[in-house]
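User:
Note these tokens:
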Amino acid sequence: MAASRLSSLAAAAAVAASLPALSNRAYADPPFRFNPFSSSHSPSQAAEPDSTKSDTKSSPASDEPRGGFDPESLERGAKALREINSSPHAKQVFEVMRKQEQSRLAELAAEKAHQEAIQAQLDIEKQRKMAEEQRNLIQQQAQAKAQILRYEDELARKRMQTDHESQRRHNAELVRMQEESSVRKEQARRATEEQIQAQQRQTEKERAEIERETIRVKAMAEAEGRAHEAKLTEDHNRRMLVERMNGEKKSG
């Protein structure tokens, strides 16, 4: 019976102790749940929270003050504290409350550590993802830079090939023009040479004709000269004959 009474007092004290905190932390954390000596609850003790819940449920929300707590509950808590203080088991009740508070604080610390561990894991994962994204970005930038370098190298190679091809065509054009010029020069030389030879042949022909004409004229002149000389000789001989005949006549 003493243990049951002690448990009841501890539950009431816990409720009373939690009320100021609840009034300061309204709408922030769930209400403090005190469950002292769950194995030794009596039917009356088990019914008491239910009656409290039923009272809480039956009271309309509009009747609750803005502080987030029921003044009647505060009054009941203060009454429970007075009963504890006047009880011979007050020291044990407060010891139980202290241990339960320590257990609650330990649970809160464990929960906080768990949440911090989760947050740390999330931070680590976030940092890992950021590092991975940074590595991917650096890799993409390196790939883009390498692609740009390859593109520029390909353009330079194509420009070099184009320049070489253009120079080759230019050189081939120069060679073709030189060959054509050489052919034209050779053709002009041959034409000139043939013209000179033709002129020489024409000159030789004209010279031969002149020589033939000269020989013919000379032959004709010589023939005429011989004929004239023969005629002169004949005339002279005739005159000599006539004169001799006339001289003979005179002398006879």
Q: What stands out?
A: The mean pLDDT is 76. Helices lie at 2-24, 43-58, 71-86, 90-251. Residues 122 and 128 are 9 Å apart (CA to CA). The first helix runs from residue 2 to 24.
